[in-house]
Amino acid sequence: MKKNISVFILLILLASSFKYRSKAKEFDQPISTTGYASNATTTEKNVQPLDAVVDQMQRANLDKANGNSEAIKSLWSHTENVTIFDGGENQEFKGWKAVQAELEKISAGNPENYTYTFEKIASHQSDDQACVLQKEHYLLKTGKAVNLYATIVFRKENNTWKIVHRQENVLSSQDKSDESFK
Fold first, then answer.
1. Assigned domain for 131 exists
2. In sequence order, what are the residues at sequence separation of 6 or more whose Cβ sits closer than 8 angstroms to the Cβ of residue 2?
3. Buried b (16+ CB within 10 A) or exposed e, 114-123
4. Which residues contact 139 (CB under 8 A, 6 or more apart)?
5. Bridge partners for 156 per DSSP
6. Does 30 fall in a domain?
7. In Å, what is the CA distance from 28 to each residue of 31, 79, 95?
């Protein structure tokens, strides 16, 4: 099972990386790496642990599901090389302005309170990049459920972990058949 998950994560990362590199030429300017050090180490002082940032992201996802996008927006990098790939609507959002607008649109479209739960599948952290793969479950008051696979990529910027990419795909009925909604 762990081998299958590892292969799945690798395939997602490779596909995302290839798609991102092949589309990077669409930006008017070269991708900037200003704001984060590629030689960062995990022993640096004053670096918030990734686990703490992921916990903040989970609380911010609940806020977003309930109509408030401010917390999730604060966790994102505000550079032009951030992206969201929305598997449910097959859309891509590139650059901070587009990502910010999408986060606000999602929050504004949620006037009803959702229930939000998640299941962490896997994560990986290097010195200056990290990735989290999880299942996310949203339940409307009307009873409609939305279940997603989400891959979130973080980058260290100025000793702070920031989200630089999110890819989500809707879970198939087969993926959720043996799970109960929490």
1. yes
2. none
3. bebebeeeeb
4. 114, 115, 116, 145, 146, 181
5. 161
6. no
7. 9, 13, 11
Find the Cα–Cα–Cα–Cα dihedral 170, 51, 55, 104, rounded to 10°.
-60
> What mean pLDDT comes out for the span 92-109?
89
- For the cut 90, the answer to whether the pLDDT of residue 181 exceeds it is no
Q: Judge whether 43 lies within some domain.
A: no
Q: How many domains does the chain have?
A: 1
- Structure confidence at residue 130 (pLDDT): 97
Q: How far is 128 from 153, CA to CA, in rounded Å?
A: 11
> Do the domain assignments include residue 147?
yes
Q: Which long-range contacts (CB under 8 A, 24 or more apart) does 54-63 make?
A: 54/123, 54/132, 57/152, 57/163, 58/118, 61/116, 61/118, 61/136, 62/114, 62/116
Domain with 110 in it? 48-176
Name the strand (E) or helix (H) holding 175. Answer: helix 173-176
Q: What is the pLDDT of residue 180?
A: 40
Q: What is the CATH number of the domain that holds 104?
A: 3.10.450.50
pLDDT at residue 43, as a whole number: 47
pLDDT band, residue 108 (cuts 50/70/90) = confident
Q: Which residue has the higher pLDDT, 163 or 47?
A: 163
Q: Please state, in angstroms and rounded to a whole number, the distance separating the CA atoms of residues 177 and 49.
A: 34
Mean pLDDT along residues 25-48: 45
Q: What average pLDDT does the segment 67-93 reach?
A: 91
